[in-house]
Design brief:
Helices cover 43% and strands 17% of the residues. The protein is α/β, with parallel strands linked by helices. Strands 1-2-3-6-8-11 form a 6-stranded mixed β-sheet, sandwiched between helices. 41% of the residues are buried.
């Protein structure tokens, strides 16, 4: 249900249930958690891209499984829904949406670090239309990436927002033509993996941990990250490569 394609330091993860609009079932949740485990555990993998096979990124929860067991099989203990939305990670994940990401699909996008979307994509949390709530992060994460009133409108009406409008508000990093979301995400990924991988992880970690914190806590977290980096080989390689006027050769250690 989750295909993994390794491209250098980048792992492309594809939800592969096109016949079910890539809806999340138990196999998708288990497969996505295992794929994230693989990325986190492999020192040679520095970044992931998450996409969907077919014209839909992800239609959310498989309602047949929700009806059968209340949705208990659609998550994991560590990752929550889809084995992903609550998963603690150190390496960045780009969501590449070449079609609609709705309900749990939007919540998967919100749990990612960066978002690339084609104009064929749209985002929304239509749970209220089925007497449900967006319990996999949508109710509090949407208002972090959209103006509060816009997020409230999406939650209360259940109506979607276009990729173009999401891009205008900053929810989407890069907007592209239909059929090019993965290629655009790979271009963005290449801009990231030229950088020191440990520095990328530490920087992302500080940003996430310091969200909502005061300046004193932000400085404390930043200084701790710098101290950890100072003990690595890559910390010495960066200045050395600059002085020698060559591209750095990162080791990830």
């Amino acid at each position: 249900m989750i295909d993994v394609d390794i491209r250098g330091h980048i792992a492309v993860l594809t939800i592969n249930r096109p016949e079910a609009r890539n809806a999340v079932n138990g196999a998708v949740a288990q497969g996505l958690e295992a794929a994230i485990d693989r990325i986190e555990g492999d020192d040679d993998l520095w970044l992931g891209i998450l996409t969907g096979n077919g014209p839909v990124f992800c239609a959310g929860a498989d309602l047949k499984e929700v009806a059968a067991d209340g949705g208990r099989s659609l998550g994991t203990k560590r990752g929550g829904f889809a084995g992903y939305v609550m998963r603690e990670r150190t390496k960045p994940i780009i969501a590449a949406c070449d079609g609609p990401a709705l309900a749990g699909g939007t919540e998967i996008v919100l749990a990612s670090d960066l978002v690339v979307a084609s104009t064929a994509a749209r985002f929304g949390v239509p749970e209220v239309k089925r007497s449900l709530v967006a319990a996999a992060g949508g109710l509090f994460r949407l208002q972090k990436v959209l103006p509060k009133n816009i997020a409230t409108e999406l939650v209360l009406t259940g109506d979607p927002i276009s990729a173009e409008r999401a891009h205008e508000f900053g929810m989407v990093n890069q907007l592209c033509e239909p059929g090019t979301a993965l290629d655009t995400a790979l271009e963005l990924a290449e801009r990231i993996v030229v950088n020191a991988p440990l520095a990328v992880r530490e920087s992302l970690g500080v940003m996430n941990a310091a969200a909502g914190a005061d300046d004193a806590e932000g400085f404390r977290l930043s200084n701790e990250a710098m101290r950890r980096l100072a003990a690595t080989e890559d910390f010495r390689e960066g200045p050395r490569a600059f002085i020698e006027k060559r591209a750095p050769e990162w080791q990830g250690r």
